[in-house]
Amino acid sequence: MSPAALEKKPPPTLHLERASIAILLGRESGSGLGRLRSPKPVTGRLLAAANLNATASYHQTTHLWKPNPGGPRTIAEAREIAEMNGAYIEDDIHFIPVADDIYDQRFGDSYASFGQVKAKSNATAVPWRASSPTTSAIMDHTGKINVWVRQSILDSDQAITAVFSHETFEIEILREVFQRNGGSLPAGVYYDLTRAGKADNPHWQAVDHGDELVWKIQTGSQ
Amino acid sequence: MIPYINEFIEMNLRGEFQTWELAAYVVKQLSKSCLQSDFDELPDWLKAGVREEIDSYKACGGWIIFRSNSEPEDYAPYADDVIRKFDLSN
Predict the structure, then answer these.
(1) For residues A38 and B84, what is the distance between their CA atoms, to the nearest angstrom?
(2) Mean pLDDT of B46-72
(3) A38-46: average pLDDT
């Protein structure tokens, strides 16, 4: 991989403004996530079908997530592949592969998850960074942002690109929103920013970003 | 035995799963179908973690877990179940 491919790009601030507007507008759409090996039907707001692009709460490119002939990638390889395909990944992001059966047990049927926090209610302040091992926050007390990834995602370079770029894109928007809000957000607001089914929120934009990178691989325009 | 407990403990030891997260997982599993012996067999530090989370819940009266790509999950019913059915003092 060339050094240029690994060069960090600026965080997606323009998308933040779109997200903020959408949050104020409260537009909603979308439904359930699927797994790499058994994707559920996807729904969402499709753009012009002619360009095969899409925008939604759920990935629209899962049919392009082909298993690698050489088998699964390591996390280090996956990170490089995602970056090579256009993902922006900060150094403090720590991807953790989790066997599918264990992932199901703890994280449900998503492809990846981050930002696990506990709160008394929607009004509880969620900090960006934990002050101690017993505090919950988006970033742990050592300065790492853990992203738990379903192991089977590592079977496909397209899935890796979609999922890694999705999660990191979303994290970078959140990083800025938290920063602008003094380092914390009410749990309910955090949920609104990251939940599926809310049009143009950071999660929605991250899905679009991940799918866009997969389409670039598909069309050879990367 | 609590499902996958050894794997989650290993993740905790590698810094990939905080103790509060592990304690929450234990509370949920205990409430679902586990036995007193499943709690008693846990390492002391994890039992302490469970007690700490339960005490925190008792003190504030709410316990919801949020994470990306999931709906928020209310842990209060799990915690109430564990408080009612388990002796956490050992």
Answers:
(1) 39
(2) 96
(3) 31
The residue of B55, B68, B70, B75 whose CB has the most chain A CBs within 10 angstroms, and thus the best one to mutate to test that interface, is B68
Torsion angle of C-alpha atoms B69, B75, B81, B82, degrees rounded to 10: 100
pTM of the model: 0.83
The distance of B21 to chain A (nearest Cα, Å) reads 8
Please report residues of B whose CB lies closer than 8 A to that of A105.
3-4
So what's the ipTM on this one? 0.92
**Residue in chain A lying closest to B12 (CA):** A133
Q: Which of A85, A99, A126 is nearest to A220 (CA)?
A: A85
B75: left (phi over 0), alpha (psi -120 to 50) or beta: alpha
SS in 3 state form for chain A?
A: CCHHHHCCCCCCHHHHHHHHHHHHHCCECCCCCCCCCCCCCCCCECCCHHHCCCECCCCCCHHHCCCCCCCCCCHHHHHHHHHHCCCCCCCCEEEEEECHHHHHHHHCCCCEEECCEEECCCCCEEECECCCCCCCCCECCCCCEEEEEEHHHHHCHHHHHHHHHHHHHHHHHHHHHHHHCCCEEEHHHHHHHHCCCECCCHHHHHHHHHHHHHHHHHHCCC
**Angstroms from B4 CA to nearest CA on chain A:** 7
Query: Angle, nearest 10°, between helix axes A202-219 and A187-194?
Result: 20
